[in-house]
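Handout, page 2. Input:
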Amino acid sequence: MSFSDQNFSNEQPAPQPFTPQAPNDSTTGCGRVGLIGCGILTLLLGAAAIVFLLKAEDLFGWAMENFQAQIMQSLPDDLDDEEAARLRHAFVAAVAAVKEGTVSPKALQQMQEELRNSMWEAGATLTREQVSRLTEALEAVAVASDVAPEIDSDPAADS
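Output:
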């Protein structure tokens, strides 16, 4: 008798590793609560993006005022009043140039780099060279957009 001629009808079927069950309709998919939550979150993020776009200039001005205050506290003692006034006016001119929207991307990038370097050192006193580089970068933003900083003859008037 050959292997293929044997009758295996007496054997039981092999056991299944698990028994299949019908899926419960209430637990499949994302669910209504998840979809509503995601929809509300999307609406809130969209509203925040619109507010940010409308207030971007004000946010930039506020940030620059904070940067200026921190940097002015870190100025070296040997910096004369003329150079400090030039730096203050360069900040004002840079903010005005950005609000006009006519800033050169290259000048803006250099200003950001100098601000970052100056803010990194904000806990310590800046050097005259750092102040000079920052002032030149801020003025480059203003010059690139034809907004020249106005320098008063009396630097004590800005204090």
